[in-house]
Design a protein that fits this description.
about 375 residues; elongated
């Protein structure tokens, strides 16, 4: 076995009986096809990998997927099992050689960079990989490293572009193709696609849509990326318009009903999935003697416009036509449509209200 093959095996953290010859994309680079290395980790990245596999499978394709770089296996399924990343699992399901799935802890490891150089990729494509790429990495592919970023760069650079855009209540966002440089999401722009944002869509769904559109954009631009002309046509980003989309923290998940309903509704949509949004309420018995505090995860909301006459003054919460009506700042109100008690399944507002059995509910 060659030294490069041994290095590839070193980074393979899972076993399978599939041989490289059954891969959806040939494991051995040919003279005609340019080797491409794909970097991605979560499920949305698998959408991009699927598009690359399909495009590379045609006889006249100018490229092939030479290797996949992804996050190492981690505990999933509530920590019970150590499993490969969604991208790695998808590649294995497609018959991609496990020896060509690389899982370094950091993309700057010398042994990993040695392996990457041995692959001699012409270009690297990244989609939510989750690791910082050092200069040593970026110097390897002669045609550059191209990232699919789910925003209209230079807007929302950073770890949470979709979540922060929804939190800000934007009516339009998009997806961008840009060359990767050392500065955060600041490389020259190759292409972008705009997308209207519905006021009920949640972050996971919008993320799926944007990476699906990004996949199409990538396939459309691949010819210019592979012949090098994309480097000449790429335009620098306007730094004066740059905004940041910092990583979301669990501490941000609490809702404060002193804010206006539109801000709370946008936050619920933005933080859907992880970390979610939470709020505390007081449950008061019929005699108005005992008060219990209950923590609810707020799953689905809507800005109240129909039932303004049903909304209580102060902190009391009413129920009307399938929604908890929560008074908010600025004289606004939020309709809460779905909630989740700790350790329980998601239920609709009617089921939760019926479970109170005549007790009253107040915001805290």
């Amino acid at each position: 076995m060659s030294s490069s093959a041994m290095m590839l095996r070193r980074f393979c953290c899972f076993s399978t009986t599939v041989s490289p010859s059954t891969s959806s994309s040939s494991a051995t680079p040919t003279a005609k096809k340019k080797p491409l290395v794909f970097l991605g980790s979560p499920q949305v990245s698998a959408t991009v990998l699927d598009a690359l596999f399909n495009a590379s499978s045609s006889q006249d394709s100018p490229f092939e997927v030479a290797a996949i770089v992804t996050q190492p296996p981690a505990r999933r399924d509530r920590g019970k099992k150590i499993l490969p990343s969604p991208v790695a699992q998808y590649a294995l399901n497609r018959g991609f050689s496990p020896e060509l799935i690389l899982t370094p802890e950091q993309a700057g490891e010398d042994s990993f960079l040695y392996t990457l150089r041995a692959l001699n990729p012409d270009i690297c494509i990244t989609a939510a990989y989750g690791n910082i790429l050092p200069s040593k990495f970026l110097k390897i592919p002669p045609l550059g490293t191209v990232n699919i970023h789910p925003s209209l760069l230079p807007l929302y650079r950073g770890a949470a572009p979709v979540q922060r855009a929804i939190q800000d209540g934007v009516k339009e966002t998009g997806v961008s193709l840009a060359f990767t440089v050392r500065a955060l999401d600041a490389g020259p722009m190759i292409a972008s696609q705009r997308w209207e944002v519905d006021d009920q869509i949640k972050a996971p769904d919008l993320l799926d849509l944007l990476f699906s559109e990004g996949s199409k954009l990538l396939i459309r631009e691949l010819p210019s990326l592979l012949d090098g002309s994309a480097q000449a046509k790429a335009k620098p980003q306007d730094e004066t318009k740059a905004t940041l989309a910092p990583k979301i923290t669990p501490e941000e998940s609490w809702l404060c009903f002193n804010e206006e309903a539109v801000a709370l509704h946008n936050k619920v949509r933005a933080f859907a999935g992880w970390p979610g949004t939470r709020a505390k309420f007081a449950v008061i018995d019929k005699e108005n003697v005992e008060q219990n505090v209950v923590e609810l995860k707020i799953i689905t909301t809507r800005i109240c416009s129909e039932f303004r006459g049903e909304v209580s003054e102060g902190d009391s919460i009413n129920f009307a036509k399938g929604a908890l009506l929560v008074p908010c700042g600025g004289g606004t109100a939020l309709e809460v449509l779905e909630v989740q008690l700790p350790g329980k399944k998601v239920i609709n507002a009617a089921a939760f209200w019926n479970g109170l059995r005549g007790q009253t509910l107040k915001r805290l």
